[in-house]
Amino acid sequence: MRSWMNVGKIGAAAVMTAAVMSYGQSAEAANGFLAEVPVGDWSYSAVNELITAKVVPDYAVAIPEGRVLSRLEMAMIVDSAMKNQANMTDVQQAALNKLNNEYYYDIKKLTLLNRLDNLDNNQMDKLNNQQAGETFTKEEKAGLKKAAALADKLSINGYARIRNDHFLTEERQADGSKKLNRKTRANMVHIAVNSTYKVNDNWAAHADIGYRNSFSGFDELRRGDGRSPSENETGITIDGYVTGKFPKLGLDAKIGKWNEWNIYGWGMDIDCDFSGIQLVQGKKKFKTFFTGGQMDLWDGVKNKEKVTSLRFFYPFDDKNDINFGTSWSSPMTSRYQDTNGRHRVFYYYTHAHHKFDNNWSVRAGIINSNAHRDQDNIEVAGKKTKKPGRWLQIDYKGAKLDKPNTYGITLDYRYEPALSWPTVTDWCSINSKFLRLGFSYVPAKNILLDTFYTWQRDIDTNDRNDLYRFQAQFFF
């Protein structure tokens, strides 16, 4: 009987090498080799059915409910089952083939690492003779060991992105008529290199460096005031933070400065530069997120908005989850909120997700706030709608970076009153409502092409401000 506290006969060197081989950029990209398989993922029920049927060699006990496995552990189970296909029914083989497709590259890494781990020093010397014609000197071997030790601790990933965004905006003329103008939002290349240094089993240090170069204005749009460059400015972004965990407490921590991009965020999509601390508590399915610090929304009005957020996440099963919570943020003049008082704006929200099958899923959310209108600009702020924000998103299939020729289609509706919604969601204007149709495609492994068109209107004036995008991304 195999205990769930063990991962088999893989040596420490193999496991650490696996960490280097894993990477984590995603538009549904392949997860890192040592990344956790999310609670509620379909893989758990699939392998448990095989284990319960006693067709998985060396595995006699099903995975306990709430036990979280890494992709490495899951790959070991699937690899073991693959060796016993002859004793499986057609239904069991079909389930196993689906698992094998999901963890195919993880199993390949597992096989390679086992081979490397089984090589003893004599075999390594023999390999050196075969490849280089001579063995390494003691000094060379010592240097290789140091390099290997560093490789065990350091991992690097990133992407290169070419983005072209444009607005089609209705602008009012002196005679009251409207004129449709085309305006560039982003016309740039963006390169990001993200490095992680593993300090020990629980803590890691991260340095994320990015470079943006605008093709529209070149150096005259260079950001030089210490803030991050916007989408159409040239400049460098530098983020540094640490991540760690306290296993006995079931607590994960993130401290420093990072780009916060999250479809759940403070309850809605969010994209900002964040400085502060984020704590995640929860050993099983239910998780609590505490985030405190300040965010830069790149709106040019106020650089740092103080924010404290408490949100909760619960996946009922592999098809349904709910996300809800509250946040307290500095009032923002860019959102027509009163900044004279000392109060923060209180937001409250809920967000649900349902997966119909392997192709279709839907997300829906609602958010509101107690924001007061800006009294210094009451002529404008007094006319702004103060209603709950809401959104509905339907997804079909999904582009997977590790699977060429996969694609995804998204239909998105948003209603975002400035007084109720603290962020500019998905690169759209403040105080807007819109319908967006998007398409993404993976022509080759780690290459993503995506485009969308957004039919956008101001909530109060109904002025048109459509946005469309063409983008290519290359992940490494």
Strand content: 35-45%
Helix content: 10-25%
- Please provide the ordered H/E string of secondary-structure elements: HHHHHHHEEEEEEEEEEEHEEEEE
Main beta sheet: strand number and arrangement? 16 strands, antiparallel, barrel
Distance between the termini: 39 Å
CATH top level assignment of the largest domain: Mainly Beta
Number of strands: 16
Structurally, how many domains make up the residues? Answer: 2
- If you consult CATH, what is the topology of the largest domain? Porin
CATH architecture of the largest domain: Beta Barrel
Give the strand line-up of the largest sheet.
1-2-3-4-5-6-7-8-9-10-11-12-13-14-15-16
Q: What is the CATH superfamily of the largest domain?
A: Porin
Low-confidence stretches: 1-31
**Average pLDDT value?**
82
User: What is the count of DSSP helices, taking H or I runs of 4+ residues?
Assistant: 8
The global form is globular
Structural class: alpha+beta
Indicate the multimeric state. single chain
Radius of gyration: 25 Å
